[in-house]
Amino acid sequence: MKLLGLLQEDSRMSYTDLAKSVGISETAIRRRIKKLIDEKVIEKFTVKLNPDKIGKPITAFVGVDVGGEIGPVAGSELLNRKEISELYTITGDFDIIMKVSCDSVKELERTIEFTRGMDFTHKTKTYVVLNRLKETEAPL
C-alpha cells in the first residue's frame, strides 16, 4: 500500500527512490510494480492536467435521468463526447452522472442540451464547480 501511495503522488518517481522509501531493494520494487500492472491493480500511468491552464476552466457534474434500465445504453451514447471526462451509471435520483470540463459556459450549455436531446433523457440536473477542495484517485 505504501508503494501504491507513493506512485499515486508521483508516478515518475525512480525505482531507486521508491526502494529507499519503501525499504526494499530496487529489484523487488521492479517485480512488485510489474505484478501490480499484470494484475491490473495499476491500470495505467498518466499525467494530471490543470484544467485552468489548458483552457478548460468550467467543470460541472451533470446528473441524467434516463429511466433506469437503459442507463448503460444512454452512457454509451455519451462516451465519445470530448468534454465529458468521467461517466458513471449510479444509484439514486439519477441513472448517470458525468463530469464535464469545458472552455466556456456556452460549451457546457451545448453539452447539456445534447444530453437533454437524447431520446431517453427524462431530466438533467447540473452542478457547476466553484472551487476544487480535494481531488485524488481512489483512496488507499
Provide the CATH top-level class of the largest domain. Answer: Alpha Beta
Instruction: Give the oligomeric state of the chains in this entry, treating copies of one chain as homo and distinct chains as hetero.
Output: single chain
**Strand proportion:** 15-25%
Helicity, in percent?
25-40%
Mean pLDDT across residues:
93
How many extended strands?
4
Structural class by SSE content? alpha+beta
From the alpha carbons, calculate the radius of gyration and give it in angstroms. 19 Å
Give the ordered list of helices and strands.
HHHEHEEHE
**Count of DSSP-assigned helices:** 5
Structure description:
This protein is α+β, with helices and mostly antiparallel strands and 140 residues long. It has 2 domains: 2-38, Arc Repressor Mutant, subunit A; 58-128, Lrp/AsnC effector binding domain/regulation of amino acid metabolism (RAM) domain (Alpha-Beta Plaits), CATH 3.30.70. Helices cover 35% and strands 19% of the residues. The protein has 5 helices and 4 strands. It has helices spanning 2-9, 15-22, 26-38, 71-78, 105-116; strands spanning 58-65, 84-89, 96-102, 123-128. Strand 2 (84-89) and strand 3 (96-102) form a beta hairpin. The N and C termini lie close together (7 Å).
Please give a quick description of this structure.
By secondary structure, the protein is an alpha+beta fold. 35% of the residues lie in helices and 19% in strands.
